[in-house]
Specification:
The protein has 10 helices and 14 strands. The protein is an alpha/beta fold. It has 2 domains: about 140 residues, NAD(P)-binding Rossmann-like Domain (Rossmann fold), CATH 3.40.50; about 180 residues, Dihydrodipicolinate Reductase, domain 2 (2-Layer Sandwich). The strands form 3 sheets. A 6-stranded parallel sheet has the order 2-1-5-6-8-7, sandwiched between helices. A 6-stranded mixed sheet has the order 10-9-11-14-13-12. Helix 1 packs across helix 10, helix 5 crosses helix 7 and helix 5 packs across helix 10.
């Protein structure tokens, strides 16, 4: 199994390496790829150091699998080149997500949509992934009409420079390079650029990706995405309106058996999901379940996940495991 990792030196890329080790993914040859400024560096995998290489050199090795975490531009340019040599590409950027010819996959939700012919596969937005993990089993039972979500997104979603900037501000520094305002002791209600409709690109990702993954364009979604000075993971306050009424006990039972979801919902002992405790975990955590008393057939909940794991690296590797399990690679 020859595997290329594009963006190997970044936060998500390094998380992918750790997960490939942890999950014992059957790699025989690893080709870590980064930009020219990273040449000369090495990455560690299974006790061995691998020199960073350029994409062209990795393509020449004809890998069976390429994991991309290098941004939309490199993905648009290089993913087709890897696919042309018979490689399966799993891309973590937004480049291919809304391409109607490409699958947008969360294995527990719509992994059955994959076919052997899907050479370029899109990994969804981190905030979308954790939300649809909870929505899907509830949609199957009650049919979701509308979702209102507000996110509280970790700075790790922006990258290592954002982490360094926040820690610098925490020590009294005043540099503002990554975000338009200080992030320490602050919240910034803007993630990505503003669009003509007044929403940010991140917010519209959640709207459009949710419908595509759930395979239901009738689900109405509206989102407000906020960057918060947190490092452990993303949190979401989600209001769900169903077509049919429900019992809270049934909702808890459904979510307690949902694959990849952990129910943490006991107000009596102050049990609820928090990003500090979701750090380095692969599951999606859900709690604060309660009926919306202002609207019929509606539910409030709180969803938390490590955005570098299930929100990015874990989901990508789970897709790779699907490909391997189906006998298409390795």
């Amino acid at each position: 199994m020859k595997v290329a990792l594009i963006g190997a030196t970044g936060l998500v890329g390094s998380t992918m390496l750790r997960l490939l080790e942890e999950r014992n993914f059957p790699i025989t040859e690893l080709f870590p790829v980064a930009s020219e400024r990273s040449l000369g560096k090495t990455v560690s995998f299974n006790g061995k150091e691998y020199p960073v290489m350029l994409a062209a050199d990795a393509i020449a090795q004809k890998p069976q699998l390429a994991l991309f975490s290098a941004g939309g531009g490199p993905s648009l340019e290089m993913a087709p080149l890897f696919a042309e040599v018979g490689c399966y590409v799993i891309d973590n950027s937004s480049a291919w997500r809304m391409d109607p010819s490409k699958k947008l996959i969360v294995p527990e939700v719509n992994g059955d949509a994959l076919t052997k012919e899907d050479r370029i596969i899109a990994n969804p937005n981190c905030s979308t992934i954790q939300m649809v993990m909870v929505l899907k089993p509830l949609h199957d039972k009650y049919r979701i009409k509308r979702v209102v979500v507000s996110t509280y997104q970790s700075i790790t979603g922006t990258g290592q420079k954002a982490v360094e900037e926040m820690m610098n501000q925490r020590q009294g520094g005043t540099a503002i390079d990554v975000y338009p305002y200080p992030i320490d002791l602050n919240l910034i209600p803007q993630i990505d650029v503003f669009l003509e409709n007044g929403y940010t690109k991140e917010e519209m990702k959640m709207v459009l990706e949710t419908c595509k993954i759930m395979r239901d364009n009738d689900i109405k979604v509206t989102a407000t995405c906020v960057r918060v000075p947190v490092m452990g993971g993303h949190s979401e306050s989600v209001n769900i309106e169903f077509a049919n009424d429900y019992e809270l006990a049934d909702v808890r039972n459904i979510l307690s058996y949902a694959p990849g979801v952990v129910l943490q919902d006991n107000a009596a002992i102050k049990e609820y999901p928090m990003p500090l405790y979701a750090t380095a975990k692969d599951e999606v955590f859900v709690g604060r379940l309660r009926r919306d008393e202002s609207q019929p057939n509606s539910l409030n909940c709180w969803i938390v996940a490590d955005n570098l794991r299930k929100g990015a690296a874990t989901n990508a590797i789970q897709i790779a495991e699907l490909l391997h399990g189906n006998g298409w690679i390795g």
